[in-house]
TrEMBL record:
Membrane topology, as annotated: Peripheral membrane protein
The protein's enzyme class: hydrolase
Any one Gene Ontology molecular-function term assigned to this protein's record: mitochondrial ribosome binding
HAMAP family for this protein: LepA (MF_00071)
Chief localisation class: mitochondrion
Record-annotated Tr-type G domain positions: 57-238
Protein purpose: Promotes mitochondrial protein synthesis. May act as a fidelity factor of the translation reaction, by catalyzing a one-codon backward translocation of tRNAs on improperly translocated ribosomes. Binds to mitochondrial ribosomes in a GTP-dependent manner.
GO cellular component entries: mitochondrial inner membrane; mitochondrial matrix
Protein name: Translation factor GUF1 homolog, mitochondrial
Entry keyword annotation includes Mitochondrion: yes
Transmembrane segments: none
Catalysed reaction, written as an equation: GTP + H2O = GDP + phosphate + H(+)
Species name: Aquatica leii
Amino acid sequence: MIFLRNYLNINCLKQLSKYNQKKCLVNIQVLANLFKKQYSTNDSNQTRSIYSDIPIERIRNFSIIAHVDHGKSTLADRLLETTGAIKTNSENKQVLDKLQVERERGITVKAQSASLLYNYGGEEYLLNLIDTPGHVDFSNEVSRSLSACQGVILLVDANDGVQAQTVANFYLAFGKDLIIIPVLNKIDLKNADPDRVSKQLETLFDIDPTTVLKISAKLGLGINEVLQAIVTRLPPPPADRNLPFKALLFDSWYDRYRGVLSLIYIQDGQINVGDNISYHHTKKNYEVKTLSILRPQEESLSNLVAGQIGLVCCNMRSSSEAHIGDTLYRTGISVTPFSSFKPVRPMVFAGIYPLDQSQHINLRSAIEKLALNDSAVTISVETSPALGQGWRLGFLGLLHLEVFTQRLQQEYDAESILTAPSVTYKMKLKETKQTLKSGTELYVSNPVHFPDPLLVEEYYEPMVLGTIITPDRYLGAVMSLCLEKRGVQKSGTNIDNERVMLQFDLPLSEIVIDFHDTLKTISSGYASFDYEPIGFISTYLVKLEILLNGVAVDELSSIVHSSRAEIIARRMVARLKDIIPRQMIQIAIQAKVNGKILARETLKAYRKDVTAKLYGGDITRRMKLLAQQAAGKKRMKTVANISLPRETFIDVLRK
């Protein structure tokens, strides 16, 4: 371009008049700009075609799975730097963890994707990293992300060794027949013992110690060996570019300017900007507006081909039209759909209410927007006489609940009241005029909807398989805690000479509130805990009602196991006695189950000293005044309503 300008300036302008010289210079500048634009466009097209030209044999789709704080995000940062996706910088920390809650807690909550270019053996490889959460509470994120992978990196801390979530994540990947690359991280630490941890992997997972890679993600040691293992050990995706277009939708989120963005894995064929595509579940058609890959920032492309993972924008206005696990295909050319993901049933429920009913609309808007980004949350409207209008939300676990409410406050500045979490119970009803036939199943998460015991044939409660890894010196205390929570031991394995892995069947209702904190306390923070749902078992449940002067308060009721009813009842009435403010009348606080009072506390009334004006005389005068006062209190008690301030319910119900 510079040569063209100089040539025209020297050879043409000398022979023109001043007026024509000026006019010619303008034309030369226009020509140069057009040439520059065309040059840059060609260069851009050349860059974009790099991804499409990479054959399927040189594509690898993988994920990183690990226990919390074992360095998964740090390894992802080093992989991005080594492959040139981001510039090497000391400030590159948790690049793929974009949410504030992820950075504060040091955990991954939302799955992210990044496409990496890596040169191996003189050939360019496309490595698609799908970063996944590690906690069981976000198993829906993990499950749908692993559906687009052919292998995983199992990352283990060389200092702490195998933890409970390591075991759960291994079997999740193993169950999907994925190739597993074992990697030991943090070998630079003073107390790191890679040989000991390698033996743990061999004992628990039958992994050959010679195949284990040893790295330090923080210092960047061994990162190239990890990339080479991804290329050499993992298979390419089973894709075919000659077949009609077919893609799997495994994630989506809402953009306020572009609508719903769909993250897809292309199984067959290719897709271009301007194509008309259809979603199998909704049967709706859309025109593809933009295509891009994540590196990890969006990079626009003109087309995507089989084997790749990319982002599709087609002006979809409602996230309800994007069903996770749906199949995308070219309009008019039908394909065999993928088997859709099994809907995840929420395990933990909690009521959420605005601090003030004037904030109801803002809180509702915040919950709806956040639920678009987290399809595992279920929402139903709920009304409480004490707290007003609110919602009952279902979550996959306690951590899921905590993260959701934290995001509400941080991302939308929405203050809320969160009630104590509860779980969903299943009940088989007897044959009645209402049910028409016996065996009808009813799911109850709110004590208000607990049926009459005479109508119930059998009760069921949700169970989980809890995995605990602890130093052997805390074994007695940990086992006592599990047995206290009605746990049944399934197995016990010595990982090495110092640590033991225990597995217990535990009722979910016993672990959702304080089990993890208690476990950390009795083990000085060394024990780790993870769980997975295993279904329902038959049990005997009762509804624990709280009475104030004989009047039941529905907001304070709860569903408990019959063996724990008396303990919980005594604890509840004692707490209410401390929280409920004293009034002019005496308040009897009672806990009742099936008509039987299990615990009682009495809150004394305020009492005026009516005998203060007496300075002597007959005692009958004193007794008369006290009798009049007692009669007045009795009359007041028969007509008075006990009004509990809203703050009392907040203190009692707050998690």
